[in-house]
Amino acid sequence: MILLHNALLRRTILFLILCTCLFADNKYPIIFVHGFMGWGPDEMAGYKYWGGKNDITNYLKEQGFEVYTASVGPVSSNWDRAVELFYQIKGGQVDYGQDHAKTYGLIQKPEAKNFPGLYPDWDQNHPIHIIGHSMGGQTARMLQYLLESVFYLKEEEEQPEESTLLGYVHIGWTTSITTISTPHNGTTLSDIITKGIPFLQDVMGVAAVVGNDFFDFDLQQWGFEKRREETWVAYFRRMRKHKAWGTRNMCAWDVSLEGAKSLNTLAPVSSDIYYFSYATSNTRLDSASGFHVPHKSMNLILRANARIMGRKKAYWTDGTATDSTWYENDGIVNTISQLGPTTGTDGKDHIVAYKAGELLIPGQWYHIKTYNLDHKAFIGHGLKGDEKITEMLALFKDQCNMLQSLPAKD
């Protein structure tokens, strides 16, 4: 009887140990990835992409989280941005891939893009969480696709790329992806995205105060750099006329309906990754017209965009058009597009409403909430009043706490 009791006790203890390991919290680093026309922590004269005048990532560090802020090409394609993100995190010489460079006429390994690494230990035993705003959410998903794939050279059968990223499979390197106001299915504003929306106005305003050397388009792969005596406005105007805009290797394609559909087809959910989405909406239905109009709290700069999107249809190449469910928006991205990917040719990703306290499972999207905020307000731009700023910081802290409550990997 005593032997039976001891055996049962040992099994119980072993079970508890296994459960503790399985459900142990993790302390994995959290990487923040900016969106279109975004910038890094050392640009914009101290005005932060993540927080504006209130540094979100510094606040999170003070709360005990290990967080890092990436700085990738503000107008580059998701492929180029994802490659840059990999090397910024891991460290090393950026390599866009031999075939990719040939296709678009890029410098495959631009000397200026060689990084020491934000988190050089990154691998399957030391995974990360990624939080992306706007296009940054797409970039995170593109990175996951590149991590989980091997790319073979077109002209050399069965010969993989020599790239550290593109020539090998990296499974288990990412624990979660959180997207904020991301155009998962594109935005109906994409045809005027080259005008520099949504952050161009912010950039131009700071330029007038601090001068020209505060923002970089990071287009060295195209051989495009700011000239010594060139004003920032001239630099921007020259960039807008660059040949890259006529290709699919630029942001305008990636945030279009068809470009987003292509990414959704390439990068469905991975079975071992947790996915979360935050959405923003800052328009209201005008019952008289049936269209959406800007909410009174929307940033003045974004209201014209919101009106266009609130009544505009857009089309996929097969002739299918968006319907009235796409009218609701945050001034930059249609709200319905932010919930999660639904337009891949192999079907929709599974999206469910997040419920606090439920057991989370990987391989599906949890839509956490839709906030009555415009595209920029969620990350602190234009927020006024200590209460709103405190709420914003608390929201990011809560998300980081949730991410680090996910089970640690074995």
CATH class: Alpha Beta
Give me the strand/helix succession: HEHEHEHEEHEHHHHEEEHEEH
End-to-end separation in angstroms reads 35 Å
Number of strands: 11
Mean pLDDT: 89
- Class derived from helix and strand content: alpha/beta
> What is the 3D shape?
globular
Low-confidence stretches: 1-5, 7-22, 194-199
CATH architecture: 3-Layer(aba) Sandwich
CATH topology: Rossmann fold
Beta-strand percentage range? 5-15%
Radius of gyration: 22 Å
Question: By CATH's scheme, which homologous superfamily applies?
Answer: Alpha/Beta hydrolase fold, catalytic domain
Topology of this structure?
Elements lengths: L1 H21 L7 E4 L22 H7 L4 E3 L8 H13 L1 E2 L4 H7 L9 E2 L12 E6 L1 H13 L26 E7 L19 H11 L21 H9 L10 H4 L2 H10 L7 E7 L2 E4 L4 E4 L8 H7 L41 E3 L11 E7 L14 H18 L7
Parallel strand pairs: 1-2, 1-5, 5-6, 6-7, 7-11, 10-11
Antiparallel strand pairs: 3-4, 8-9
Helix pairs in contact: 3-5
